[in-house]
Amino acid sequence: MGDGAPGRITALVRQDFRLLARDPAPLVVRTVMPLLIMGFMLPLFRAALRADDVPDANGAEQAVPGMAVMFLFFLVNIVGFAMFREHGWNTWDRLRASPARSVELLAARLVVPLLTAVVQLAVIFGAGALLFGLRVSGSYAALAVVGVPLALCVVMVGMALVALCRTISQLSVIANILALVFAGLGGALTPQSALPDWAGPLAPGVPSYWAMRGFSAVILDGGGVSAVLLPAGVLCAFAAGLGAVTLAFFRADQRKLSWS
Question: Which residue ranges does UniProt annotate as crossing the membrane (predicted)?
């Protein structure tokens, strides 16, 4: 590995990019699937938005950010696989024996998933505009202000689960459950105003709620960067909290199992 922490982290990041380039299929599927689902859900979302006093809505205003947020959280599995495969390949001990410290090994594993998540969001929003007529009445910069901390939050969910779970099966089950719960409570599957009474008080406790709130402020309300500072700040707080959980519970000497 390269000299110094930056060189060692860069070497690990390059390796992750090479592995991603060899097998991009999981990421392609996670990007294409939300677009396919949008085609089926668009009429339902159109009716929901028009019932929510958005008379000129075409449904993409809810479908695109909702499916983007929902499927972004399925990337948590990929974050976990990136860590667990080192144990499955019996290369984790070799990494630990290298000059790289545990915090460097963790930091290096953040880069590729984070960039992947940002690109996935950009592709889904761009395709949503081209294929489904998504109209953004606010600032595109504001979308990025929400999207980047959301992507970081997703990656940190994955890192926290890596720290807490011993097997890949545990991580996969928990990650999938969280993705669906976050989608439901966060307003990805229906406008937040249409959530059931019991879900309303719980919704602000999940990061997807703040992501959808920020995206809606830009897409539907025409907001700029100042309008999304609160949602973006809360997403950053979620990411910081998950980072603290990761550092508190991650043990480099704990053997992870890449099978049940």
Answer: 27-45, 65-84, 105-134, 140-164, 171-189, 228-250
What are φ and ψ of residue 244, in 5° steps? -65, -40
Enter the pTM of the model: 0.88
Residue with tokens 């592995």: 19
Q: Classify burial at 257, counting beta carbons within 10 Å of its beta carbon; exposed 0-12, middle 13-18, buried 19 or more.
A: middle
Residue 158 C-alpha from the chain's centroid:
9
101 near 11, Cβ under 8 Å? Answer: no
**Element holding 160 (H helix, E strand):** helix 140-164
Instruction: Give the 3-state secondary structure of 182-204.
Output: HHHHHCCCCCHHHCCCCCCCCHH
DSSP annotation string for 223-254: --GGGGHHHHHHHHHHHHHHHHHHHHH--TTS
What's the rounded Cα separation, in Å, for the pair 199 and 247?
Answer: 31
pLDDT in tens, 88-147: 776 766 666 666 676 777 777 888 899 999 999 999 999 999 999 999 999 999 999 999
Work out the angle between the directed axes of helices 60-72 and 207-219 (0-180°, nearest 10). Answer: 150
DSSP class per residue in 53-78: T-TT--SHHHHHHHHHHHHHGGGHHH
Q: Please give the radius of gyration of the chain, using alpha carbons only, rounded to the nearest integer.
A: 19
In degrees, rounded to 5, the angle at the alpha carbon of residue 25 between the alpha carbons of residues 22 and 30 is 140
CA end-to-end span of the chain? 32
> Is residue 257 classed as helix, strand or coil in its secondary structure?
strand
